[in-house]
Amino acid sequence: MPDRILLVSPASPFSPQSGAQQRTALLHAALQQLSDVDVLLLEPTAGPSRLVAPAPGVLAHGLWQQRPLGIGKFSPDMALDRALKKNGLDVRDYRVIVSRYLNPLSKLVVPKGVRTVVDLDDWGYHYSGRRLALGPRLKSRYAAWLGRRQLGRFDAFFFVSPRDQAQHPELRSAVLPNIPYTPPAEPFPQAASRTLLFVGALWYGPNRDGVDRFLQYIWPAIKAAEPEARLLLAGAAPPAARRLWEGHPDVFAPGYVDDLNAAYRDAAFTVAPIYAGGGTNIKVVESLAYGRACVTTPHCANAFAGDLIDGLDVASDDGAFARHCVRLLGDARLRQARIDRSREALAKVYSREAFMRQAAGLLETGMTS
After folding, report:
1. Which Pfam families match (predicted)?
2. Please, what sign has the CA dihedral across residues 279, 315, 331, 343?
3. Which of 13, 85, 184, 297 could form a disulfide with 24 if both were Cys (CB 3.0 to 4.6 A apart)?
4. Of 56, 45, 38, whose CA–CA distance to 79 is shortest?
């Protein structure tokens, strides 16, 4: 029986810049604790399924043909299978195949006897009540229904939160939370700052929509109570959106920020006005790890029920969100108290050591079953 592990992912573990790449890098490191690991990148393309030249460290890089209307989205890709075998990659040579997301693994032809583990990151997407027309919403729900129908094809799963895991008690699974990739050794001390910080990919719909709502309904109330308050939106976004956001008073949207440490160090606290989306919002955990309190929504906070919830300021509506922000701006001791309450959970659940331990537990069982 072979002992090697195949990691299948659309994101490389060797250039961990985005959150998806960082989680892939962490999972790759966890797998390396157990056995030798090969990396197969699989991404969709509008053209025919084929292999392209892999980057250093990657065994093979495949493109699978994405057909209109989601036709065959989760069906094995026979052309890709032939191309991989011709290139010398046979999935029968692996004890376990671990896949980032459901779709890449679904494109492979996996024979009986090869164990499979799927990392269901961003599972259980929740929709915003303020956005998304009926047509797109129905299309997305149909895609989610199709995805759920595939779960029986595979052996075990990682979920990023107990909230997502609870949707599927019938599955063999473990919770593998998203964690900060390179947090400081110690949380930053509280700063005498009037800056609120948002960190996240601002091209992503739930983040963009949350910022729009914050600026329209919450920011004016904060500015009325705290005229010197500033808001920094740190994250890649289209130039047109950044210009629109910067039309609000004392709002700065520079796009991607090279020095995230400086952004956190110079902030009083962070905001995560997220009302839709799936998975866990790593921005919340990262904020606490950097020593910055976070004001967020019940949608975000529910993912942390049982551990970080006592360290968060959770706003049930726009008015409460503004009041939480004004209160934190005027009380550095309260901000520090939020960080102190989070320390134990960060070390126990959201550290690199905890991630490696939790991943190894499910994977070791999967390799011996």
Report:
1. Glyco_trans_1_4
2. negative
3. 13
4. 45
pLDDT at residue 280 in the model: 60
pLDDT for 121: 85
Confidence band, pLDDT 50/70/90 cuts, at residue 144: confident
Residue 240 CB-density burial (10 A; 0-12 exposed, 13-18 middle, 19+ buried)? exposed
Phi-psi region of 230 (alpha: psi -120 to 50; beta: other; left: phi over 0): beta
CA separation for the pair 295, 324 (Å, rounded): 7
Lowest-confidence region among 82-96, 133-147, 315-329: 133-147
pTM: 0.86
149: which 2 tokens? Answer: 């129908």
DSSP 190: P
The closest of 356, 352, 16, 33 to 185, measured between CA atoms, is: 352
Q: Which of the 8 DSSP states describes residue 215?
A: I
Nearest-angstrom CA–CA distance, 76 and 95 = 19
Domains of the chain, start order: 5-179+352-368 (3.40.50.2000), 195-348 (3.40.50.2000)
Element (H, E) at 118: strand 115-119
- Closest Cα partner for 215 from 203, 231, 204? 231
User: Could you tell me how many residues make up the chain?
Assistant: 369
Q: What is the mean pLDDT of residues 224-228?
A: 97
Tokens describing residue 266: 């110079």
| Residues 236/91, Cβ–Cβ less than 8 Å | no
Over residues 61-79, the pLDDT tens digits come to: 999 999 887 778 899 999 9
DSSP string, 239-307: HHHHHHHTTSTTEEEEES-S-HHHHHHT-SEEEE---SBSS--HHHHHHHHTT--EEE-HHHHGGGTTT
